Amino acid sequence: MDEAGLIGDAQRGDLNAYNTLVLHYQTQAFNVAYRIMGDVDSATDATQEAFISAYQAIHTFRGGSFKSWLMRIVTNACYDELRRTRRRPQTSLDALYTEDEAPDSPLVSRAENPESYAQRMDLQAAIMSCLQGLSEDQRTVAVLSDLEGFNYDEIAAIVGIALGTVKSRLSRARANLRDCLQGYEELLPAAYRLSGGSP
Amino acid sequence: MNERDRIALNAYLDGQLSPTEKAIIEQRLAREPVLRTELESLRATVALLKMAERVPVPRNFTLDPARYGRPARRGWLGQIAPRGMPRLALGGALITVGLVCAVVLIFSLRGGGTPMAVAPAPGAALQERAIGEDVEQPLVSTEAAPQEMAAAEVAQEEAVEMPAATTTLPPAVESYGAPVPDEVGLPPEGLGGGPGGPETGIGGAAPAPALPLPTPVAPQADQMMATPTLEEGIGPAAIETQVVEAEAQPITPQRVVPPEPSSSLPEARPTGQADRTPLQSWLPVVVIVGLLVCALFAFTLARVLKRRQQRDRSP
Fold this sequence. Notes:
By secondary structure, chain A is mainly α. Chain A has eight helices and no strands. Chain B has 13 helices and no strands.
């Protein structure tokens, strides 16, 4: 994919070029939003809003990492959506279903045996629960670093904070996640258990 | 284990340390088991987090060409804005500059008057009324009025002391709105048919019974057209009509010779505020309020458009 060429075409108003970029980055953008927001519906709204905002502001992109630039818009859209949700709490009808009952859960794999699927789902639920226990700032840094694989400089650019702040937030986030995940050890299989803890 | 060591361990785990820092932390890990235990627990935590699965997108997030197909053009504000400058900031800056320019322009046109003094002075109102009535009545200067009134008082005193001379001496000031005498007390000779003749004048500096009839010296053109002159002769009926009109009309100051408007107007303006009309006085307030209303309207319109846009975008 000629990313630079697509970006240039999108800046000149070529929507097809921009949609090509959307298709390339939408999974990562949605996953970042999903981990930050905690539910599919809010993540969908935030992601859609982010891609619209990115298209409207693509003329301000002056080179560099387009992925970092886009992820910054996604995180900002997530913060906006979180603020909006706090002002007007809403209960989604989809939330009335449990994950096992949800027919089109994104984590369902029908080719997997039930025991393995259950263990995997327990781990995913534990991770998601522990992530939601973090503050927004720590959660965003942990998601970008440990789930999406961004380095410290990229995280600093995406979140708009200093490098030292990234380090301290990530350190606290990991300490909190470790303590949280240790509370799920009885529910997790031995392969997923943490060995040792904070001294 | 302090926070600094934990941060250093995380950076070491992520490969974010410089070679010097990395060497230092490795030396400490070799001799401090607590650090090693902490590092292993952090490594396990990160490994567990990396097992978090990617969630497939529920739908594509591509933009609809029917709605977003037009070129991503910038609005007029965005086109004149420097790159990277938010349009909102530019709009705010433009409004601020416009307000400052409007205020400076307004107060410079007002001749440095007090910004909050928007109500015209009473003297100015009198001047404005006098200017407005300049066509029908002679203008009375506020500066000249006290002098002429003083002269009228002196003439009245002289008339009291020498009543017989009232018909022979030329009046110093013909009329200044003396109280209208009772119709019964009018002396017949004082109404133009007396021995004083037309030149002696009627009323004016005469004693109390004198009638302040329109002066025969230099009447205005319209008064000349409306009022019969002394040369034409005034009959008793006309005199009575004039007396009744004089009683009915409000007392207005008059002078003998109407001054030239061009020469009298500067004297009638002791300050720079006297020539302001109420519209000019209220102009700053009107402009500022108008700008504020426009800004409020623009803000409300922007919010409404944004809400509508968000509603349209919602699936």
